[in-house]
Amino acid sequence: MPSTPAESMGMPEHPMRHHRAAPQRENKGGGWKIAFIILVIILIAGGIGGYFIKKSVFEGKNSYSKSENSSIWQAVFLANGQVYFGHLKERTSKYPLLTDIYYLQVNQQNLQSGDQNTNTNTNTNADAAQPQISLIKLGDELHGPKDEMYIAKDQILFWEDLKDDSKVVQAIKDYKKK
């Protein structure tokens, strides 16, 4: 017995008749889950990357903002040739702050006394002036400045951390004992 009306009329069966349609995927809302997971991964990676960039650029060993330990003394070299010693703070600011400030003052002192040497074989180096270097505490000057100085960052050539046994640090410690 013919199973289809076309067969009953003697017509050949259509070749696509028994072709199965491709199975349809069921969308159960899984697309938003994948997008959410990707978003979370991107946020986590961005957070981790931001943390390491912050650590390396702003707090790294070679960073401009290297930890500001208040017990370490710095020598701050300025564009005008002056050098100040103190504690440099707020290093990333437009105007870093230097506190507990000292500087060196050089005085020329003539080694030759008031009497003229009559010896014709005098050494020319004996006539040269011997520089006398003094450590001066900021604040004792005529204009009476406070013991802090805001310095334009673009005027700071560089600074150095001083060792605890440097001659300048020892002279500062001796000054403070007085």
Query: In percent terms, what proportion of residues is strand?
Result: 15-25%
- The CATH architecture term of the domain at 74-111 and 129-177 is Roll
CATH top level label of the domain at 74-111 and 129-177: Mainly Beta
**How many DSSP-defined strands?**
6
What Rg, in angstroms, do the CA atoms define? 41 Å
Helix-strand sequence? HHEEEEEEH
> Could you say what the CATH topology of the domain at 74-111 and 129-177 is called?
SH3 type barrels
Which regions have little confidence, pLDDT < 50, spanning 5+ residues?
A: 60-65, 115-123
The coarse overall form would be: rod-shaped
Give the end-to-end Cα distance, rounded to a whole number of Å: 125 Å
How many helices? The count is 3
The biggest beta sheet reads: 6 strands, antiparallel
The overall average pLDDT, rounded, is 76
Helix content: 10-25%
**Strand pairing plus helix content: what structural class?**
alpha+beta
Word description of this protein:
This protein has 178 residues and is an alpha+beta fold. The termini are far apart. 25% of the residues lie in helices and 25% in strands. It is rod-shaped and about 135 Å long. The model is unreliable at 60-65 and 115-123 (pLDDT under 50). Among the domains are: 30-63; 74-111 and 129-177, SH3 type barrels (Roll). 6% of the residues are buried. The protein is built from three helices and six strands, in the order ααββββββα.
